[in-house]
Amino acid sequence: MSGARLPVTFAAFAALLIAQAGFTDKSARAPEPYAVIAGTVFQESGFALPRAQVTLQAAAESPPKTKFKKLKSATSSRGEFTFRVPAREAQYTIVVEASGFETQQQTVSVQGEERIDLSIRLTVSGRK
After folding, report:
1. Do residues 52 and 39 lie in contact, with contact meaning Cβ atoms separated by under 8 Å?
2. How far apart are CA 53 and CA 99, in angstroms?
3. Cβ of 53: how many Cβ atoms within 10 Å?
4. Partners of 109 in beta bridges
5. What CATH number does the domain containing 82 carry?
6. Nearest Cα to 121, choosing from 17, 49, 36, 21?
7. 96 contact partners, CB below 8 Å, separation of at least 6
8. Is residue 24 classed as helix, strand or coil in its secondary structure?
9. How far is 70 from 55, CA to CA, in rounded Å?
10. CA-CA 20 to 30 A from 55: which of 6, 30, 39, 99?
11. Residue 66: CB partners within 8 Å, gap ≥ 6?
12. How many other CB atoms sit within 10 Å of the CB of residue 54?
C-alpha cells in the first residue's frame, strides 16, 4: 500500500519544485522603478473637493517613443489623487473636472524616480 502512495507523493513534490523554480526566476527581478504624481484638488473656498475626476495622459510635447495609456481616478474625500508612472523622462497632462466647476489642466515633467505634488484649485463655473 505504501508503494502506491510513494509515486504520487514524489510526483507532487517534483511538480512543486518545478513550479517554484519558475516563480523564483520572476520574483528575483528588481521591481520596476516608478515616479508618483499626486495632488489635492480644492474648491475656490479652499475646501477639498471630493469625487473630482482626474485624468492623466501623455502630453503632446512628450517624446514620440513614449507610449502611455490614459489613467483616470476620482479624488478621495480629502480631495487627493495619486498616479504611478514609469520612471523615465516624460511630460504628462493632468485634467481635473467636477460638476459645477471650470475644468483645469496642468502639464508636469517627470525626470526619473521622483514624487511630484500638485495643488489644484477649481473655480465655480461662470465665474472668473
Report:
1. no
2. 9
3. 16
4. 91
5. 2.60.40.10
6. 49
7. 41, 52, 53, 54, 55, 103, 104, 105, 106, 120, 122
8. helix
9. 7
10. 30
11. 58, 88, 90
12. 24
- Do 85 and 24 belong to one domain? no
Report which residue type is found at 19.
Answer: A
pLDDT at 66: 62
User: Where is pLDDT greater, at 8 or 82?
Assistant: 82
Mean pLDDT, the chain, rounded, equals 85
Do 81 and 40 lie in one domain? The reply is yes
Over the Cα atoms of the chain, what is R_g?
Answer: 24
With beta carbons less than 8 A apart as the criterion, state whether 55 and 98 touch: no
* Conformational region of residue 2, where left means phi above 0, alpha means psi within -120 to 50, and beta covers everything else: alpha
In a domain, 75, yes or no: yes
Q: Is residue 126, in this structure, part of any structural domain at all?
A: no
Residue for grid cell 526566476: 25
Question: Per-residue confidence at 99, pLDDT binned at 50, 70, 90?
Answer: very high
Residue 127 lies in a domain: no
pLDDT digits over 57-97, tens only? 998 876 656 677 899 999 999 999 999 999 999 999 999 99
Count of the separate structural domains present in the chain: 2
